[in-house]
Amino acid sequence: MDCLVINGGTPLKGEVKISGAKNAALPLMAATLLTSDECVLRNLPNLSDVQFMARILKSLGASVEMNRGTIRVRARKIDGFGDYDLIRKMRGSICILGPLMGRLNEAKVSMPGGCVIGARPIDLHLKGMRDLGAKVRVEAGYVHAKAKRLIGGESFLGGRCGPTVLGTANMLMAASLAKGKTLIHSAACEPEIEDLAKFLNAMGAKILGAGSPTITIQGVRRLRGAEHRVIPDRIEAATYALAGAVTNGDVTLRSCQPSHLSAVLDKMREAGVRIESGRNTLRIRPAKQLRSVDITTMPHAGFPTDVQAQMMVLMLKSPGISIITERIFESRFMHVNELARMGADISIEGPSAIVKGGQPLSGADVMASDLRASAALVLAGMAAKGVTRVNRVYHIDRGYENIDGKLRALGANISREPGQ
Ligand code: EPU
Hints:
Elements (H helix, E strand, L loop, with lengths): L1 E6 L5 E5 L4 H10 L6 E5 L5 H12 L3 E5 L2 E5 L9 H6 L7 H8 L1 E5 L12 H9 L3 E5 L2 E5 L7 E3 L1 E2 L2 E2 L1 H12 L4 E5 L5 H12 L3 E3 L6 E4 L8 E3 L4 H13 L3 E5 L7 H9 L3 E4 L4 E4 L9 E2 L11 H10 L2 E6 L8 H7 L4 E5 L2 E6 L7 E3 L3 H13 L3 E5 L2 H4 L5 H7 L3 E6 L2
Parallel strand pairs: 2-16, 3-15, 9-12, 19-20, 23-24
Antiparallel strand pairs: 1-24, 1-25, 3-5, 4-5, 6-8, 7-8, 10-11, 12-14, 13-14, 16-18, 17-18, 20-22, 21-22
């Protein structure tokens, strides 16, 4: 297993191009199953999760051609229900449930278990399918959903921790080919949902209100092929913005969408970081004096859970006490113990991390536990004095395209080495 070795202390400087969004790409790729025509997606990030999803589409009988960020998928016919083992390995693959239901009125997908960031239930996905008239059984580790024909209905998709992103995506995809009209209440408002609706509408779907909590979908008989460009990755953008900030650097992000990042930029400004926002660019310049801020993760347009770990590193650099509260996932503080090895003073009280910032960090051997926790450890390594070795870096390759190359181009002293 590869590791990243970082010699910290260099302020980042220069420009970085933001890639297409992983969390938009996965449901968009799944949506290509809704038609027998060819679909083309551009600006796909080169990530192991994207390659994984391409393998899933192939295992379902689609022809898939991938070439430098462009994928052509043609699912003339869907054979069976794909390779269960493959589907089981990636949580994001739950978003094939909606397209299979839309196209075949039947789906069998493996039931995802919990993961390091907490329980990952799919009850709302299943409720959505039931609200469209499907019979859903969970048996021997699989979800089996079936209907004679999906019928539009009314569905409330709000859960204990707010709406569900991939649950909303599944519902949009299934309801697009259902008979009649569907109304979703408490839908997820994430930009990735808006992007999916845009693609589905280009395929001939009739979706109104995506990006708001109430979405209506008028079902259509068939969807056709379409082309679409994936939105920029707002989480990758936030990570590079924070990488600039924690190293006191001067970093310009290109090809990003600042309007998708309001909550993160607002909190970074509150912490003192100087930010200039253009239409598709952001320039991050060092704070005159960093300040501690409190953060609570929430569904969009609140502060994203996927940036909580990286923001914690900025708070470690900011003198004073910051309280970071995680409201989306129950145990998304796996990075805290690893940061402690680098000298961080953080204590966990229920869903909150109390960060005592302003003390120097020192390089250490640390272990990546999930995608965003790994990104935080890389940021901490760049902000620390000395050498940090981030082990199990495959987590990071799931969601950050060429992270070491991009950081090196900004002047970071980072290399990839084969691990133990
Ligand atoms: N939830 C339920 N029931 C459900 C589904 C979700 O109670 O049926 C709860 C979850 O336990 C959680 C909350 O609802 O407390 C939100 O979960 P959501 O369903 O929105 O998460 P997701 O759709 O499975 C996507 C991203 C995650 C991101 C979350 C929240 C993809 C592939 N994944 O997951 O991304 O953290 O939305 O924004 O789009 C990441 O990229 O590192 C990542 C984990």
